[in-house]
Design brief:
With 244 residues, this protein is mainly α. It has 14 helices and no strands. The relative contact order is 0.15.
């Protein structure tokens, strides 16, 4: 394979995987394989955005000099339990990216290791872009101040759809609301989706942020730097529909 875990597939096999994943996505809009089999154009666009950004270049390790061999020999960053210093994150002040990310993981009882490895993307660099997208997903929850319930996941998917153009995100954004109650649909349609779309369209590419070097940065300052509007749940804490 082109990278560890890579499963080579023919165009016909990719089409069958896409169809099967599309049917399964009617029940699970966040199906992983669908993103790998239908996201080639979006992944290429994301890679180009990362290459045009100095911080994104450092993540991809695109050489900025003639020392191509030494630059490319470095391992690309991964967000895994094995690469995170939980004690250090817990020692950071409240309101920093690292402390709030750890709080998100603990409150929602999730782990970065739950993200599946990419297998069906037939390009090593694009496979990494897809893996990076998966591994920053929980950081987007933190940046957007969204919980892991269905409403929070749908809002994050609308943001990701605007940011990435991945068909999987668009499908999840479109189908996810079908699983919400009328009481949750009202704030989604009136407030949360417009905010997520504005922020997703206007924000800098979130895959080009070297989060591992920004754990100590104030979360509100990072949102402002990236062009993400303050989350509605932060602007209107009373009667917050996300927590009900």
């Amino acid at each position: 394979g082109l990278y560890p875990g890579h499963v080579p597939t023919s165009p016909l096999q990719k089409a069958l995987l896409a169809v099967g994943s599309g049917v399964a996505a009617l029940l699970d809009p966040y199906r992983h394989v669908l993103g790998e089999t239908t996201g080639q154009l979006a992944l290429r666009s994301l890679r180009e955005q990362m290459k045009r950004d100095p911080e994104g270049q450092s993540i991809l390790h695109v050489p900025l000099c003639d020392c191509a061999v030494s630059c490319l020999s470095r391992e690309r960053p991964r967000i895994r339990l094995s690469t995170l210093d939980m004690s250090a994150l817990g020692a950071l002040p409240n309101g920093t990216l690292g402390r709030e990310y750890l709080r998100f993981l603990q409150t929602n009882r999730v782990t970065p290791d739950s993200r599946l490895a990419v297998r069906f993307v037939d390009d090593e660099e694009l496979a990494y872009v897809m893996q990076r997208y998966r591994e920053v997903h929980d950081l987007l929850h933190t940046l957007l101040h969204m919980p892991t319930n269905m409403l929070g996941e749908v809002v994050v998917k609308w943001f990701e759809a605007a940011q990435t153009g991945l068909p999987m995100c668009m499908l999840g954004a479109a189908l996810g609301p079908l699983r919400l109650s009328p009481r949750r649909l009202q704030p989604l349609v009136s407030t949360l989706v417009p905010w997520a779309l504005r922020s997703g369209c206007n924000a800098r590419c979130v895959l080009s942020v070297y989060y591992e070097q920004r754990w100590g940065q104030n979360l509100e300052e990072l949102r402002e730097e990236l062009g993400i509007e303050p989350p509605p749940a932060l602007r209107h804490r009373r009667g917050d529909p996300l927590q009900h």
